[in-house]
Amino acid sequence: MFDVSKIREDFPILKREVNGKPLVYLDNAATSQTPQQVIDVIVEYYSNYNANIHRGVHALSQEATDKYEEARQKIQKHYNAKHAHEIIYTSGTTHSINIVANGFSSFIKKGDEVLVSAMEHHSNIVPWQMLCERTGAVLKVIPMNQEGELLMDVYDTLLSEKTKLVFCNHISNALGTINPIEEIISKAHNVGAAVLIDGAQAAPHLVADVQALDVDFYTVSAHKICGPTGVGMLYGKEEWLNKLPPYQGGGEMIAEVTFEKTTYAGLPHKFEAGTPNISGGIAFGAALDYMNAIGFDEIAVYEHELLEYATEELLKIDGLKIYGTAQEKTSVISFNIKGVHPYDIGTILDKLGIAVRTGHHCAQPIMDFYKIPGTVRASFSFYNTKEEVDVLVAGVKRATAMLV
Amino acid sequence: MEMNIKEIQEDIAAEFAMFEDWMQRYEYMIDLGKSLPLIAEEYKTDDNIIKGCQSKVWVHADLEEDKLVFTADSDAIITKGIIAILIRAFSNQKPQDIIDANTDFIDEIGLKEHLSATRANGLVSMIKQIKLYAVAYQTQLS
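YS: structure for the whole thing
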């Protein structure tokens, strides 16, 4: 049984006050909060078996290595990857994307085309622009409609034998749109293009099955899914990861080194140069355990209820407009009040203890599309409540009264 | 007798000390923002935009005799309030006095949170821009 008050007990931070008011944390799309179960795993690591992995013959190193690799298997299982070595630990989604964008420099030539969706985070735009600058490839954009849904018929016309890569987020961070990635992937494969799906925003809301999706690359940041910051993963199909050149040189990623030549280690170590975020990797696994124990189906049902309630209540406010009204969306509401700058609303909400994000959400092209400077974004997690939605709505009303 | 920067800052701090809570402070800032003397449209150019702000802020400086006069605007009202306070403190002063002035009063009037890097509302950038203008015109004067 899904019991939100019991779940909230797991999150120590939810008990704190901000500006003398109980914290109402609605910036979950930026980062999720961390349950005690995950914090304990980090503390346990540094208290009990902190050691460098894959190197020492001593007991601590062995223990740390085992836990770190166990966590990799948890991630593999969660995303249903065929092999554990298809899961590369990274510092997060941005790092994951850069490994692929950098590696593809060797496969892309002048005149090739890469496609990106109109609703990408800057981290899924800039690395590809850099790739195009290096190679002379052309970046093309899959447009979206006013609701914030990709125009799939235009996508069809953009695909050709020139298309080498398609990248798209699973869920938009600014709008909450769930993109039809199955269709995007299969159509790209029809023309022989590889696909990278940025799963950062999808991670806390649904489980992606990378084999069923037949996706080539999938990226996740642990901190979006109740894990720590500074760790994430790149899933890549084995054949792609074998083909891609390593991204960084250093220890751990080598088989043999002489001054004449270095041969690289096999997967996954080829992409894991240097001492990794060991406690982070282990805690990433613990976060997946935590979320799975609650159940993603239960989470989805509850978050959908919150989304519907919040949408309904917010729309009762005069002059409030919601950006991103796709049929398929997660619990993210981006909005503005007519005549009020989102920054002003965010500032007053903060004074009331309510944490939202304001600005362009690292997705400036979306803001340009709607011709707005930014939005206020409230993003809900499974540990938020309807009472918190009420506090938000009252806060927005109060801010509006002060500002208009 | 015209007030110097320090005296004006003390005045502002005294006004803010009368407010009992943040609501009153912000309401006052919003009022200040609404009454900010606007920058001439011709100066609202991209060159005059202060980078690093979530909201757009334009600042323009004119030298009138030996004093700098600032005009500004922003698309966010709280930001306008903040810049109105800065302009009151620094406009119509000699460039060298602006260069030498400290900005401790920001802390005293309870706006310290706007100085933090995460705020990105550009209070720090605004102060820097005002001082840069002063340095530029001081060079011109000397």
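YS: worth flagging: Chain B is about 50% helix and 10% strand.
IM: good catch. Also Chain B has a mean pLDDT of 85.
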